[in-house]
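Give me the fold.
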Amino acid sequence: ANAQFPSLNKKEIKEGWFLLVEGKTFDGWQKSNGTPFTGKGWEIQNGIISVNPVDGSGGDIVTTKEFSDFELSLDFKLEKRSNSGVKYFVSESDESKRSATSSLEYQIVDDAKIDPADVTLTLGSLADVKAAKKSRGTTKKLGEWNQGLIRVLPDNKVKYFLDGYKVLE
């Protein structure tokens, strides 16, 4: 099967959009501690980045670029017991080490894995801070593509979308 690699049209490029993942390499990424990223724990196949089950559990990686206000769109599939997320505004605790644990996170998780009492850890939530406004069990089936969208606006405003629906503000 032919892979459909991420791409931008001329209008998107003119508007300042760019790809964080182009579907072929890990260029532009590093480990969360600031050291070079070798790809260990991750793989790219058919234009899709995923955890490499042979190498381990993935681990935190961050872009080499820094952002303030931004819009990030991503497509993702969940498998049974998936637990991941997109962390942003990763703080630098000192000049040589970044801590991905002290950041904001768009939660990407199989809700069946989460204790129903932990609503701030469900799919589309701002992890450990605010629950997504959606009904449990209404997301797409495991193995189907979902679309997440994170909008970080001026004045510390954040909006999360899941499959076209605003789930958090």
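The chain is about 5% helix and 35% strand.
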